[in-house]
## 1
Amino acid sequence: MAMSQTLQRGPVSGTATSRTTSRRPFLLDLYATAVGKKYVMAVTGIIGILFIIGHMVGNLKAYIGLVEEADGTMAYDLDVYAHFLRELLVPIVPHGYALWGLRLGLIAALVLHLHAAWSLTVLNRKARPVRYQSSRDYQVASFASRSMRMTGILVVLFIAWHLADLTWGWVNPGYEYGEVYRNLDASLSRLPVAILYIVANIALGTHLFHGIWSLFQSMGWNNPRFNRWRRGLATGIATIVVVGNVSFPIMTLAGVISHPSV
Amino acid sequence: MSTTLKNLTLKVWRQTGPDSKGHFESHTIDEITDEASFLEMLDILNERLISEGKEAVVFDHDCREGICGTCSLMINGQAHGPERGTATCQLHMRKFTSGDTIVIEPWRASAFPIVRDLMVDRSAFDRIVESGGFITAATGGAPDANLIPIPKPVADASMDAAQCIGCGACVAACPNGAANLFTAAKISHLNLLPQGQAERFSRVENMVETMDDYFGSCTNHGECEAACPKEISIDMIALMNADYRKAKVKNRKQLARS
Amino acid sequence: MTTLDSKIPAGPLADKWNNFKANEKLVNPANKRKFKVIVIGTGLAGASAAATLAELGYQVDAFTFHDSPRRAHSIAAQGGINAAKNYRGDGDSIHRLFYDTIKGGDFRSREANVHRLAEVSVDIIDQMVAQGVPFAREYGGMLDNRSFGGAQVSRTFYARGQTGQQLLLGAYQQLARQIGLGGVRLFNRTELVDVVNIDGRCAGVVVRDLMTGEISSHSAHAVVLATGGYGNVFFLSTNAMACNVTAAWRAHKRGAYFANPCYTQIHPTCIPQSDDFQSKLTLMSESLRNDGRVWVPKNAGDNRAAHLIPEDERDYYLERLYPSFGNLAPRDISSRAAKRAVDAGQGVGAKQNGVYLDFADAIGRLGKSVVAERYGNLFDMYERITGENPYEVPMRIYPASHYTMGGLWVDYELMTTIPGLYAAGEANFSDHGANRLGASALMQGLADGYFVLPYTISNYLAGWLNKSIPDTSHPEFARVEAEARDRYQRFAAVGGTRSPDWFHRELGKIIWDYCGMERSEAGLDKALSEIPALYEEFRKDLRVTGGTEGVNQTLEKAARVEDFFELGMLMCRDALDRRESCGGHFRSEYQTEDGEALRDDDNFAHVAAWEFTGDPMTPNRHVEDLVYEEVHFQTRSYK
């Protein structure tokens, strides 16, 4: 890559013939360019968005509280839902396999999203090795678009903490496997943790606000008739996700989500 | 009617060569009419520098009517200065007020090495065009111009893209130093037209990949569109992205067939 | 006085070009790569010539002093390009375009060249559309046309107000393709500083790298100068800042004759100068005169605001003097009328140096939205530059130097008087006579580059097949290089007090005052005494800061200004010796009773081609008689 260009003199000729024409396999070839990496960002972003919406909707079951199961016992609906996820597609696949399939897909998407973001950042740094020496006066770039890197990092760190808290239970007091409702209450009853969840979700919302609008550009889904809906869609999804997710710590602190053993 | 601006402070970037270290140099302009263009203010500064036996500030400029794309300049943190849809050469001093400090910096991007002071080398743009920004049509072999009707909206959209003056403001304004707006404008100009269809996919492939050799990536900030003196829309970038994706698929099929 | 051989082919006018093509010598495809052609300049003519020659198989070296070939000033042309397509079915034909061009040029151009231009105009449009130039279209998808001054048919193709830009980009893209393929070697930011002749033919050029200051030689079988016009001799003009006469002038000093330098075109609708250090004038499209009314106050010195001047105290002088054409009178006539009004003290604006172009009636008649639709972008540009809103106050306009019809003398094959040295586009004198019609400059540039030069150049090159030509190791190259180095060293070493721009501005004032829109014997005599005096001062009092290495724009400018000085002398000499008025050349002594140009066809139906003698004040005047077989002299009348 001729990224660090210095001043060259002398005649210019045959510039199009000197380009390398060896092609890698299709996907690698596509991924090799910045435009291709942006497709990957967009596609993995869509996977992430679908997961986040599903995750938020699933968690709303916390508000349903106790339900009566088929055998007459009472159980928290959230715990029932968690059990259902582990039993997904049984008996086509054994217990837990479908969930792991989804998890692997999510992990792959996250890894690709991170790798693309990291390599594009490196590329962009190389594209302007000497910064502007005076302060920039941005015209339209939003806070969301300029803070994608920061909000992204915050979200990744949060995901790690979130897994340690509610999946592995390492930082959850009295963690009980399978008792999702209890664990949720145990975690979010702690004020600092509740604040952490709120901050992280605002970061996530900001990330989505630019990301959802941006993915239409990256994918080249452009139609002047629908373009103005993109902003509304991005704002709508980001708002719904943030409101839904932030409601959990607030409602836990308010005592709406409350488990007797906590 | 004209008024006079007083006490302007200019902070101008001076740099003797591509590899030397540069610095801001301060100058004061005691009085200037607001009828003057921004570049005429620099002309006056240069006249003064020469009369003091100093070297004039080097900056690129030519037509001074906003069409050749030679002028550049980052003025107070904005490419081409504070007026939207205007190249530096058509910016006038009435956009400033007495007592202002005006900071003038060259475009900054690794693909645009600084030649001297405010002058940069934008040859990387030519390399992108050389790799595919044309329609192959040998002189003399063209059919009658009215043989292929082109719907007016198509011709207009192509013209919207073709207006690009190649000044590099998109790269300068982009927080990532990306040239997607330039490249997309060049591609869309030709890819929208019936005459451009034969080379449509090889064009987008070659140009996008050449662009990659020099520039950063687009993260959809939209700063390029705001800085563009011709106000070219970032919709062009979406068009390019769509065509690039199609090119990757279509060309494979053709290769498999041949 | 020698007679110049213009090498016009035999046969009836309409067959001459075909006869030439049928009889010319060709170079077979395999042999083309043995020839090297240097093209200086990458505007319409240069880029199209370089691209086509490379496509044919010649080795081409293209030079531009810009950072990119696409910056050439062809890009600034607004209105359009003429072609005898007759898509309107309104009676256009090759013959009519030919005749309109001859008449527009006031019967001072070469019939055969103009006819060829009209013939190939048709191919240009086909070629440019095939290359992807997005010309304006009608809803049915066919090409749209507009009408332009000097013609009774609609034959002008356009791309918004940016036709020059789109055509140049078309030619540039073809050039870029050839650079990419390796057919053309591009030298950017490299300026021609001299032409090298060996054994009576052009052997190559000496150039200066504007980035490093390095001076080097390049040899070739043929050299094409496509370096534009010299309108910047006036300092203030609508030309780009870097436009200059250097390439043509250096060739002239090495033996190429310079033809009709006094034929310059002044465009009537430019924004007047606003202050003393103004760097250039901006053109407002001539189309504005379709709806705007030109007027000045009847009373000299009336400095009331426009809306306070009642109707009966306004002088709509174009409507009064030229009732049938009114505000659409041709460029030279409108320009002179504006100058007379301003000279009589009726000028408007703070400096009283303009006339009004008023849209109040049009806005009243059509409504603001229709006016905005037609001229919105021009109104915006006017407001950006002047700070005045033309929807509310009338525009102020004044004529400015715009185009130069004169240039290097070339024969029918576009070869100068130096064998192997060609001139194309505005740099030559060939097709426009004493006045160019609107939308014909783009046509000529592309005709020369795409459709004329690629044919005519082989006629010369064929004779050099398998003969050796001197390369840059020949001592003549070293000698010319050394001269060029000395010249730049000299500029840097004068150590005076004035910048090159200061001298350029002073020179421009003299030329504008005495050799501008109206010329007189007394004025030209005065100019011919003032210019050499100022030139002497230039040689003694110039100050160039910085050295000869690296980028030094002050040094570049100094060399260009020196060439303008010498050209200025020749221009005034030519204007003095052409004792008649024709087209853009108006001598106050030669006018009709009502102030129109008075030609002298008996004594001046010829091209004046000047030979450099060593002293720019005493050039030799040669004459090429213009023989008209098809057209008959007429007096232009637009009353």
## 2
Amino acid sequence: MERILELLIVWPFLAFFISLFLPKENEKLISGFTFGVVGVHFFTILGLLIYWITLGFPVLNLKEFSIYESADMDFFIDFYFDHVTAVYSLIGAMLTFLVTTYSRIYLHRESGYKRFFYTILFFYAGYTLAVFAGNLETLFIGWEILGLTSFLLVAFYRERYLPVKNAFKVFSIYRIGDVGIILAMWASHHLWHENITFAKIQNYELVHHHLEAHSVFGLFISIMLLTAACAKSAQFPFSSWLPRAMEGPTPSSAIFYGSLSVHLGLFLLIRTMPFWEHQLIARILIGSVGIFTAAIGASIGRVQSSVKSQIAYASVAQIGLMFLEVALGFKNFALFHFAGNAFLRTYQLLVSPSAVSYLIREQFYHFVPKHEHIETHFSKKLEYTLFLLSIKEYNMDDLLDRFLWKPFKKLGNLLRFINIKNVYYITIPTFIAGVLIHLTRFSLPPFLVEILPEIFALIGLMLVFRAYSGRWNVFVVWTLLLMNHFWVVLAISFNEHLTFYEIFFHLAGVIPSGILGYFILWKMTKLEPGVDLNKFQGHVFEHPKMAALFLLACLGVAGFPITSTFVGEDILFSHIAYDQVFLAFYLALGFVISGIALIRMYARIFLGPHVKRYHAIAQRSS
Amino acid sequence: MNYTTNIFKVDNVLHHLKHYLPAQASLKDFIHHNTLHAFQDRKFYDALTQSSKIFGYKTSLSLKEYRDLYYEGKISESIILKAIGEKKGSELPEVWFDKMLNGAYKDTFAGRRSHLRNNWKDLYSVDLDLAIQPFLFRFLCSYLDQGIAIWSFPVWNKGFLTTIREMERNTFISFFKTPRAKQMLMDRKCEISDLLAILVGDETLYEHYLFDQQFAHPGWSGFVSVVEDMPQTLLDTRRISLQDFIIFELLLEIDTLDQKFGENWLPLAKRIKGHVEPLFAPVPITEYREVLHLWQDAYEWTFYDQVLGGILENPEKENNLEKSGFQAMFCIDDRICSLRRYIEEIEPTAQTYGTPGFFGVAFYYKPMNGKFSMKVCPAPMNPPYLIKEELDNKKNKKDFHFADYTHSLFFGWLITHTIGFWSAIRLFINIFTPRLSPATTLSFRHMDKHSRLTIENSDPQLKEDGLQLGFTITEMADRVEGLLKSIGLVKDFAPIVYAVGHGASSVNNTHYAGYDCGACSGRPGSVNARVICYMANHPEVRQILRSRGLDIPSKTMFLGALHDTTRDEIEFYDDNFADVAQTELHKHNKKVFMQALDMNARERARRFVTTSKRHDLKNLHEAVKKRSVSLFEPRPELNHATNSLCIVGRRALTKKLFLDRRAFLNSYDYSIDPEGNYLFTILSAAAPVCGGINLEYYFSRVDNLKLGAGTKLPHNVMGLIGVANGIDGDLRPGLPNQMVELHDPLRLLTIVEHKENVILKTIQRTPQLYEWFINEWVHLVCIDPETKAMSKFVDGAFYPYSPEYIPETKADLTNYFKTETGNLPVYLLKS
């Protein structure tokens, strides 16, 4: 059974790589291939589950292999199989199978037919990895793939403004969730002194023992996990991304935002439940977020006048209830709820275009004209207020904007003195000074040595903010984002001894990606005068290959799990002591914001309405 | 047009705006119309040039697309030279030909619109659209919503701005973030000109500014304008005006700017340096445009020439009328022309006729238990008649997936745990074995086969909803006479005359109404077919008709039917004959229809790439039917795609021609209409209906992104009134890509069989009708009924035309149907 499980996880990845090489024009081959691959996967899981049931539901934990191993850390891939995995994998396989079958004809003649199917396959690979993951690190790989594929599918109609804008929004919020996971990984590292597996935290004694000594730390981890779960499952205050993600072809919306992707936050909570279920505060927090989201989600859902946003908010509200259910300890109940909700919303989204004829018929035969009724001034006032608030989605977007994105931008603006003329003069000497100090081991006062890591990390972070807020020359932004990795390495090397191998591991992904990206930017500025970050330029229309390569470069620099940098980030974090919360926070924030800034670079240069107007271009508002 | 108006008059500007905004009603009333209706007072090519320059539309194929067509052999060289000769006269044709093929021109589709308002972004770094549109659209959609939201809009029947004031007065929060805009709204000091004075500050720019603003979201603005003029497009009516909507948007703009800059910011005009080109300043015709127009001419006439050549070669053979087995009247719809061909092929004694599918009976129809009545005649008509359906028990099947309670918190909770799992099974079933469900729009559901209709009016005082219930005997006789005379069926009646309306069936199709009969306001034609037959069978009506010289033998029966163009199925109404011979005859005819429908389905299937052609006839038909109930099939049928002809004349003109389902066929006999009276009625309907369909397809095809609705795959239903992409998008009027991708953007060629002078006099009877022809929005060719000489209408006169094309003769096209998916040339069919 173990071998089959491994095969099940590798299978979609393999299929994804093969699908990249299928001929673009051959719709039958592309969709037939995907259909076959997902079909086989589905039926294998089905068979496996039956076999697993006959075995009496054994819980399996497979430690696969270590990607990186050193004295004090071991980054390994681990798989875990229990009834939660069983439910999530079965429903995932079934819905993916149904939706790919559905899409075979639905997407006929659509430009981007192949892109759709390989993105679905990649998504499915990430999903499978996440639900089979046996530790946070493995789960995080799958999680990141989901984030990226979500971005790609929301921006499936990449030549229009709104899909690209909303895809970027979704990606940004997912990235916030990533801060949660990164910090949770870091903290649990210190809590357990190892990369803990989900199998181990089932051990109540062990968990209890560790938590007793570090209860605040335990709570910190729980809150980070909850943040990640909220972002992924569109809970308060992140709910508004979900309806806006409905920009791709309807089946992709159905599978992603109706069913699978959006329930993954819940999955994270269920997975880590043994860890937080003994922390009362954590349970109260999870339950309150759930019930609060359920309440406002339902109220927003009630006023929605478009079919898809109505389904989205109905789903958000139900997921809120699931959060409440797990907080109350009804894990299996929540699983059941998940399954029902996933099926219902998928089907509702798939038949959503039928709503017009169906509901108009209903209206035609059952219409009751409204009558004015007299109400008290106060109740009227309350009604209008609630209605308006619901229409405005409880200002959740403003909230995020005011407390999250605006401060980031303001921070960046404070650093205005760093401008395109002096950016290199200021940063490069400081950096060299830092390196020199490190190499020559100047005898600095101890308090200074102690805060140097924070200082350097902060400088790196500030430059990221500057890159994020300024819309300058593409080369400067690229360099600043790239440099962040160097600042971080410098900062950490003051903290603890970093071996050359560790540094190499981290930068091995960054440097080639950085060079590749720089080269593409250089090439693009040569080909297309006026490439900048001021607005979407849609150059993918003429340069799809460059766009693909640039996306790869961005992912490499962002530490996406395609290079060793992904592990390198974890290595760096392992060198941050448990009392250096600020340092950890700077690093995490730096990675997250630079990830957002990188994807924005990609989006601005290559996606959106094409700047060249020799072909038909959609209205910006469409 | 006076483009230098200096003094801003709000009414004029609003009128002007409304004229240019898209005029598409809500989805249930989807009626095709000329997308560029506002430009119809100009010549077609001038309209293309101007609208492209003003609004940035792509109004024709691109140069590359034309050149590719030429290299593929779809545009003929000799026709190109002819077109050059006609347009350029004495100039050397080679020079223009070379320009067309090799000229280095750059396509640009960037309009003047938005130039003025873009300055907010350029000079003030404010993205007003980003800040305002999402909320504005959502609020407006809630206001107009027809039944998606569970909690419907709390203020009712007060008008848009009054509603906003009412809510603003009674709420703990506010629409606005700053005091000034709120104050202006509440103090009613918010005339458009007041607000523009703050925002723009230069009267000469006001109109330009409003166009910029409203055309940033033409879908919603256009819909507001439609609801203002035609409130009945919403069953649950709403009061709204474009003026109110603009005021609200302007207030929100002031609010946004105040929030950013405080109340002290300079109006736009004060900061703009340099001259803003007026929106409607004259547009020069460049050589590039001329080249495009030459290409379009050549593209069109390459096809027209084939058709005219075909008609010229077509051996005119009238049937032996006295022996005709049956006669059948169909809609003029282009989708029907192949079915008629098959019926005539299978039953050579059958005669078919084409007439607009409401069969000359215009009325409102109220089905059993219906709370409203619907128009079932061409959209511009407003008939004072109502016909009701009566039935003992009529039920509509429900589908819980659309029910409100699935979205509520606690019921939703219950449901996801329980019948949520039923969805999984439903999904499996629907994907692997598609079948009819309550979500399907089924044409036969329009009227129950077993129902009774209140057709005959017993008392003209009897009224419902202000409409006369049914028709009086004289009214009936008038309609029957009008119909039969207009199609030339005045003698030699067969024992059975069918009147076959048409409708369509589909699922997951927001544009379902556009698939039904256009002459019935986007509804199936079953009621009309049944009604006209009732009238024609009425003994008293026959008596009146006889007195008017139209003698229908008492043995002749009229029989209504509905043809489903998607499923290629037919349903007959009231087909219980007292006469045994007639029953037998009908039985036989039914078989003819069935076989013809099978063959029709096969011909249609040739364009369905995803349908395998290896099936035998019956199974292929089943596969075609399956498309109409498949959730995942965005092309249940191809609707009017490739339409490009409208032929008004005797069936003999086209009987043996293979026109590839591209022609609207209107039967007409010149010999009984020497004055052109019936012709006038026919053309008055055909030009706007067929021309409207044709031009909507044309523009949606050439610029699917701005003038069409884009691909339908990401569409989201807004308030049951329209579709948008995602949830924050503008409404998308026009046709989705899946409907038009196969369409060749050719204007409609109207071919009329009559004398030149009669035709000329007829089309000149009203300016509205003449405009279509004189401004070249549709082409017109006259065929002399006696000499068969052809002449084409150019600039108000007819000029002789002799086609070059000589059609091939084919005995059987079945093999082409298996292999060819593109357009087929005009063939002569061997009988």
